[in-house]
């Protein structure tokens, strides 16, 4: 990649979509730093962090920028979900899902923005569930809608200093987080039947779009929410309850 400035920081880059994003960015020529709750074996540039802890996030960003002068691309891919009926969501579960999915995104956006140069980008992994709520995922859907609102606000405020902020909205993707759901009888077939392209995405198919948004090819894209879902958002979501 031409004109790479600084590193790409991938939050939640130890597994799933985040890991695929780290791989796609490396392939595009970015030096990559991974920030994740779980250690990344053999990666000397990986930093451990709980995204819900503001001070820990600032420390992690400081470690990344000590090694690299700036963060040319930041990807927020940390996330969690639970399938629980609305009236059964307990406070601890609500706080976990909102803390990881929304508060964590805010913490990293606020900590990273001063280190993103003009032309740099912040990309958040959201979900098509942000606009198509699913029974059993009230807390998850709410956080993803919140992330997209945060991204739009950030695009307005940070655009004048040249920072682009976008969201990528996957549909169903084969990740460790989704494996227990896909293992349930009939669930995978139901998702495939509701997806116009008739399949289940691999994490790399989402990561390719994230890498594009970090590139100079996307230099005039900001405030966007881009579905990467095989057309699934055009149809009714399969029931999980």
Please, could you describe this protein's structure?
- The protein is of the alpha/beta class and 241 residues long.
- It has a single domain (7-175, 202-227), classed as NAD(P)-binding Rossmann-like Domain (Rossmann fold).
- Helix content is 38%, strand content 16%.
- The chain has a 7-stranded parallel beta sheet, with helices on both faces.
- Helix 3 (91-112) links the parallel strand 4 and strand 5 (121-125).
- Helix 1 crosses helix 7, helix 2 packs parallel to helix 3 (91-112) and helix 3 (91-112) runs parallel beside helix 4 (138-158).
- The chain is globular and about 50 Å long.
- The mean pLDDT is 92.
TL;DR of this structure?
The protein is of the alpha/beta class and 241 residues long. It is 38% helix and 16% strand.
Summary keywords:
alpha/beta; 241 residues; 7 helices; Rossmann fold; two-stranded parallel sheet; seven-stranded parallel β-sheet; single chain
Name of the CATH architecture: 3-Layer(aba) Sandwich
Cα-atom Rg, whole angstroms? 17 Å
Number of strands: 9
CATH topology: Rossmann fold
* Range of strand content: 15-25%
Total helix count? 7
Mean pLDDT: 92
Q: What's the N-to-C terminus distance?
A: 45 Å
Helix content: 25-40%
- Would you identify the regions where 5 or more consecutive residues have pLDDT less than 50? none
Question: What series of H and E elements makes up the topology?
Answer: EHEEHEHEHEEHHEHE
**Major sheet: size, sense and barrel closure?**
7 strands, parallel
- Counting structural domains, the number is 1
Q: Which sequence of strands runs across the widest sheet?
A: 3-2-1-4-5-6-9
Q: Determine the CATH superfamily.
A: NAD(P)-binding Rossmann-like Domain
Principal-axes geometry comes out as: globular
Secondary-structure content class: alpha/beta
